[in-house]
Amino acid sequence: MAAQPTLVLVLDLVGTLVFALDGALVALRVARLDIVGAVTLGMVTAIGGGVIRDLLIGAVPPATFSDWRYLTVATAGGLIAFLLGHHLERLSAPITVLDAAGLSLFAVTGASKALDFGLGVGQAVILGAITAVGGGTLRDVLVRRVPAVLHSGLYAIPAIIGSALTVAAIRLDVFGPVAAVAAATICFLIRMVGVRYGINAPGPPRRAQ
Amino acid sequence: MAAQPTLVLVLDLVGTLVFALDGALVALRVARLDIVGAVTLGMVTAIGGGVIRDLLIGAVPPATFSDWRYLTVATAGGLIAFLLGHHLERLSAPITVLDAAGLSLFAVTGASKALDFGLGVGQAVILGAITAVGGGTLRDVLVRRVPAVLHSGLYAIPAIIGSALTVAAIRLDVFGPVAAVAAATICFLIRMVGVRYGINAPGPPRRAQ
Amino acid sequence: MAAQPTLVLVLDLVGTLVFALDGALVALRVARLDIVGAVTLGMVTAIGGGVIRDLLIGAVPPATFSDWRYLTVATAGGLIAFLLGHHLERLSAPITVLDAAGLSLFAVTGASKALDFGLGVGQAVILGAITAVGGGTLRDVLVRRVPAVLHSGLYAIPAIIGSALTVAAIRLDVFGPVAAVAAATICFLIRMVGVRYGINAPGPPRRAQ
Buried-most residue among A129, A191, B106, C182 (CB within 10 A)? Predict the structure, then answer.
């Protein structure tokens, strides 16, 4: 049993906050959106992954609509990022870090929620990864970027690893704050190493066409 | 109780019609699509918001699939717009008006349906706004435009206001044709004033990067 | 009754395979993605249509998550296409053929599954067509192309025909391997004739604007 509802809720809300900050900063940097656009993009980024997860496991209405804390945190994150964004000289570094943090936290909470809803081990790993990459993918589609999950080799892979570690910890009955933070940290570090050293998965063996 | 099923159905079908006209005209103007493409984009615009709403509240199959009037009206609207579109000198004015009308009508019907399904007051306001902006957002993504909900400050805000007025009217037990049309009209006027005078929400305090 | 679960499963898995090959080849040709991106795009193309179908009829979690064969076949298809793609001089011909094959197979299986879930005749035809075009539409949005369903007149139409033939065969109680392959073949041939001779649906009568 996962049976750590408070732990998962806290991680989920922190993930919501960092993704909202991330989405709103992307709105400022890529599309120079106004306050409504920035907050909207922050909210889509923050709650998109969880909504996709909840639709796929049949948990409707999604937690976002039945629990006000998500919408409040997402809105607050978007507003904060909009107001503080102009103080930052460069936005790409905080965007990368926040995105990696949200990816890591949602991989853990998505996998945990999938097991709670009775999905099998493999399905839970996939669903955790989808939760992790979902919000950022919606964000990128809306501002017309090719989503990171497609062009960045070490984006889906750390999400799958973080999700798999979470599923393993729950099955081995050692899931708790330490295991959750460890799984998220490993995902985060792999992602950041990939960004720092520009590591990608292998490209096509020879350029096609 | 909302308890105005006929009223809501009529508003929903009118909203479906104007969004189908709007989507097909966008297809002609932006992408110069053929008849199948124009009708398809009209249908996606017309039924997209309602499908998203129904998926989120668990009303599956969505009304579109259980009630043929929606698909018939959406198809007819797309065909009409395709056939009449070439008589219009300029398409941007009718597109703007039709889009604002659909936004207003779906904000009312989306909020009403959410309350019928037992969602709370705040959740119903959000869901009404999502219903209102959903079809147009799918339309814009498919023809590769940044969605209006992101770059146009007075797009999400009138939808939220129309949705909130509807929820208030239902809770105060004064919901009926007058209240519904009033809520939709207020949403419509705010949107059109925003378009006419180029009003946007505040932009970033200083350009970031 | 459809009552041909094995037949439908086989067609569904073949459709999953060809769409996975197709999506991964598109990843190489259009976006030159690395192995993770190519496999991811192959999987989205392969399972996207079925996931949309299952969400719309309320079959959650979608078959993809409850039946591992889908994910295994989709992953294998993406890997094969990635590894073999560079041996192909030109990728556009195989992409077109694979995409038409997936379109045809999913039109048949989507319509059949919709009837199994109790939807009416007309709704089943629409849902079959949505299943057929869904994965390719998600693929095109992710790599920022205008989806084929919008700009290619003979894309939605063969899907609707294949889906309608399937519904007719099931209602007339003559559905079986022969009828299923015939329906898929007719859809496939119409699509390929349209591609070969550049046939499109009628364009706008006079260029608007």
Answer: B106
Is there a domain that residue C204 lies in?
no
Give contacts of A 96-125 with B, CB under 8 A: none
Q: What is the dihedral of CA A170, A171, A172, A175, to 10 degrees?
A: 0
Residue B201: inside a domain, yes or no? Answer: no
Q: Do C204 and B66 touch (CB under 8 A)?
A: no
- In a domain, residue C205? The reply is no
- Nearest Cα of chain C lies from the Cα of A83 at a distance, in angstroms, of 30
Provide mean pLDDT across the span C15-31: 94
**Domain that residue C66 falls in:** 5-196
Rounded Cα–Cα distance for residues B89 and B91 (Å): 7
pLDDT above 70: residue C94: yes
C15 contacts C101 by C-beta, under 8 angstroms: yes
Count of domains observed in chain B: 1
Average pLDDT over residues A70-98: 88
Give the pTM. 0.92
Within A27-143, residue ranges assigned H as helices are 35-57, 63-66, 68-84, 92-116, 121-142
B208 in contact with A at a CB cutoff of 8 Å? yes
Instruction: Decide if pLDDT at C204 tops 70.
Output: no
Q: Read off the pLDDT of each residue in A25-34 and give the average, rounded to a whole number.
A: 88
**Cβ within 8 Å of B, A 145-204:** none
Q: Would you state the pLDDT for residue B205?
A: 58
Q: What is the complex's ipTM, to 2 decimals?
A: 0.89
Partner-chain contact A204 C144, CB within 8 Å: no
